[in-house]
Amino acid sequence: MNWPDLSMGGYGFYIWGSYLFALLAFVWELVTLSYRKKSQLQEKSSREILRGSTNETTS
Amino acid sequence: MGHRGSAQDIGRINWQPFDFGPREATKTRRRSTKNKEQSTTFLRPKTKVQSPFIPMNLYKYSSPVNFYPLAGRLIPWFAIPAAILFTVGMFVGFFIAPADFQQGEAYRIIFIHVPAAWLGMFLYVLMAIYAGIGWAFNARLSSMMASSISITGAMFTFLSLVTGAFWGKPTWGTWWVWDARMTSTLILMFLYIGFISLQSSIEDPRRADRAGAVLAIVGVINIPIIYFSVQWWNTLHQGATIRLLQKPTIHGSMLYALLIMLAACWLYSVAVVLIRVRCIILEREQNAARFAEATI
Predict the structure, then answer these.
(1) Contact yes or no for A14 and B167 at CB 8 A
(2) Which H or E run includes B43?
(3) What residues of chain A lie within 8 A of the CB of B262, using their CB?
(4) Which residue of A has its CA nearest to B282?
(5) CA distance B274 to B267
(6) pTM over 0.80
(7) Residue B283, domain extent
(8) Does any domain span residue B47?
(9) Complex ipTM value
(10) How far, in Å, are A56, B47, B193, B197, B241 from residue B215 at the CA level?
(11) Is B27 within a domain?
C-alpha cells in the first residue's frame, strides 16, 4: 500500500483542487435537488392551506 | 386463469385517453375530478396486455404516475452502492495504484476526469434517445427523463472540463488550449446549456419537450467528433488509454480504480436522475392541476 503525502509530489494543488471541485459539484447537485423537493412540498402544503381559507379581507 | 398476451397482442393495443373509469382505485378517481387536463393527457392501453418476453407488465411504468413510486423504491439501490464504490475507488486510486512513470502523482486526476468525460458523452446520447422517444411516441415520461438527465450530464461535462484544466496546467503548462478534444467538449457543454435553456424558456411542457428533442438529436453528431477527435486531428490531448478490443496500456490497479470510479459515477447519475424525475413529475402534475383549477 502506498501512503501518498498531501503535497503529491508538488502536484497537490491540482489534484486536490480537482477532487474538491468534483465534491462541490456533487454537493451542489444534491443540495439543489433537496431544495427543489422541499419547495415543492412547501408549495403543496401552502396550496392546501389557501384552499381551505375563506378569502376574507376582514376578521 | 390470468390473461396471457401473445406477440400479436402488442400490435393490437388500442391506445386511447385514459378515462379513470370505475375499474380504477377511488384515490385515482378523486384526482381525475380535480384534474381535467390529466384525464385527456394520460394514455394507457384499454386492454391489459402482457408481453410474452417480459415476466411482469412493465408497460404500466411508462405512465409518470406509476413510475413515481417505482423510482422512489429504486433510488437507495443506486445511491448506496454509489457511495460505497466512490470510497473504494478513491482508496484504490490513492493508496494502491502506483505513481505514473512519466506524470508522477499528477495522473491521479484521471480517476475523476475520465469518468466525468465518459458520462458527459454517454448521458448526452441517453438524453437524446429519451427525447427522441418522447417526441416520436408522445411519451411524457421519456421527455421528463431527458429533462432530468440534462442537468447531470451538464454537470459531468463541466466537471470534465475543469478537471481537465487542472490536469493540463502541470502536464502541458497551460489551463486551456483550443484543442479539438477540448473545443468539442466545450461545444457539448453548450449543447447541454442550450437544451436546458430551451426547455425552461418555453412555458408549455409539450412544446418545450419537442423543441428540446430537436436540439438533442441534432447535437448527437458532436459525440463521435469528441471521441475520434484525437485520431482525426493532431491534438495536444492524449489518445484513448482504454479500448474495447485492445489490451489497456495502464497498470492493473490504475484500471481497477478507474472502472470502480466509473461505476460509482454511473450509479450516482442513475440515483440523481431518478430523484430529479420525481420532482419533474410532481411539478408537471401540480402545474396541470393548477391549470385545470383555473379553467374550471
Answers:
(1) yes
(2) strand B43-45
(3) none
(4) A40
(5) 11
(6) no
(7) 61-294
(8) no
(9) 0.77
(10) 49, 36, 11, 11, 31
(11) no
